[in-house]
Amino acid sequence: MAKLDIIDRSGRTAAQVDLPDGVFAGPAKDHLIYEAVVNYRANQRQGTAATKTRTAVSGGGKKPWRQKGTGRARVGSTRSPLWRKGGTVFGPQPRDYSYELPKKARRGALAAALAQKHAAGELLIASDLEVKEPKTKEAVALLKAYNLDSALLVDTPENAHLFRAARNLPRVKAVDVAGLNIYDVLAHKSVVFSRRAFEAVLEKLS
């Protein structure tokens, strides 16, 4: 069973944590990662795009000319799709793009993404992610201590100051364990867990 160092703010190894083989030593699952990212992005879509059909376009209540005798093509409304300012045929309508991915597939994809981060040396367990105040300068000091640039910070909900302190920083995002998702893992160069958050994630993935 592999081990991962727990790093303190001075850059020293404070302790070690075991990495379960079932999570970090399995075969590559790029297909699951792809499916999970597509699912996440689909679930984020608002689905509010809409065009007006001939029933929704204003006007067109009067028949432009009589049916017969004019020599022109018959027409019932100036809001026909054939006319300028007419309705749209088969245009987009509001819809729900979200769908459910099986729980086992979601967990497998997240585990595969974390395993890739670990293999690339971009998975870090910090001994301390606490900040004294919910201020940006506190988050900046934390990032400098761990020499981080683009990072996803993961902690438990008790560390509420961290989530507020990091929200104005570019290329940095702080989430609690429940909000951890594969898209954020892949979108940031480094993934940093507190020890308690990492243990909670391992328990969910095991």
Description:
A 6-stranded mixed sheet has the order 2-1-3-6-4-5. It is of the alpha/beta class and about 210 residues long. Helix 2 packs across helix 3. It has helices spanning about 20-25, 30-45, 105-120, 135-145, 160-165, 180-185, 195-205; strands spanning about 1-5, 15-20, 125, 150-155, 170-175, 190-195. The mean pLDDT is about 95. It is elongated and about 95 Å long. The chain has 2 domains: about 1-45 and about 100-205, Ribosomal Protein L4, Chain: A; about 45-95, no CATH class.
Q: What's the story with the biggest beta sheet?
A: 6 strands, mixed
Question: What's the total count of β strands?
Answer: 6
**Which class of secondary structure composition applies to the elements?**
alpha/beta
Output the CATH homologous superfamily of the largest domain: Ribosomal protein L4/L1
- Name of the CATH architecture of the largest domain: 3-Layer(aba) Sandwich
CATH C-level class of the largest domain is: Alpha Beta
Distance between the termini: 14 Å
Please trace the helix and strand order, writing H or E for each element: EEHHHEHEHEHEH
Number of helices: 7
In CATH, the topology of the largest domain is named Ribosomal Protein L4, Chain: A
Shape: elongated
Bin the helical content: 25-40%
Mean pLDDT comes to: 93
**Main sheet: strand order:** 2-1-3-6-4-5
Low-confidence stretches: none
Portion in strands: 15-25%
Rg measurement, Å: 27 Å
Gist of the model:
The chain is α/β, with parallel strands linked by helices and 206 residues long. The protein has seven helices and six strands. It folds into two domains: 2-45 and 99-205, Ribosomal protein L4/L1 (Ribosomal Protein L4, Chain: A, 3-Layer(aba) Sandwich), CATH 3.40.1370.10; 46-96, no CATH class.
